[in-house]
Amino acid sequence: MEKAIHTDILESKRIDSITVVRENPDNYPKGKSNIYAKDIDNNVIWSAELPLIGDTYCNPIQWNKGINKDAISWDDFFSESNNSFVVSSWNCFTVSIDYKNGKIIHKELTK
Fold first, then answer.
1. Does a structural domain hold residue 1?
2. Pick from 33, 1, 32, 5: which is nearest to 14 by CA?
3. pLDDT tens track for 34-51
4. What is the arithmetic mean of pLDDT over 70-85?
5. Which entry of 13, 25, 48, 97 is 20 to 30 Å from 91 by CA?
6. What DSSP character marks residue 63?
């Protein structure tokens, strides 16, 4: 069972040799990402890049998804991906994040 770092775990998923975790953003330390990955020894190996300084990820993760940059409608916005997940932030950015390193692959303002 995964242990939270600061608050409580809202969701997690094992992907290959890592576990990606999203903690509750309420009372999470300002300026730190509430999504991170741990290795099999429970060490944090990356924290997800934030779209803006001080932002937080408040919405559920869309696992194994990417952002279709050519989408014309919301129905086409997500694409299937084994390399990334999609999540939205408090400041209205929807981002795709690389499972390997926590870096943002693509971000869109979706206000």
1. no
2. 1
3. 999 999 999 999 999 999
4. 90
5. 13
6. T
d(CA 47, CA 50): 9
Amino acid at 76: D
Please state the domain count of the chain.
1
Residue environment code for 55-94, b if the CB has 16+ CB neighbours within 10 A, otherwise e: bbbbeebbebbbbeeeeeeeeebbbebeebbbbbbeeebb
pTM for the model: 0.94
CA-wise closest residue to 36 among 74, 7, 65: 7
Within-domain flag for 42: yes
Task: Answer whether residue 47 is part of any domain.
Answer: yes
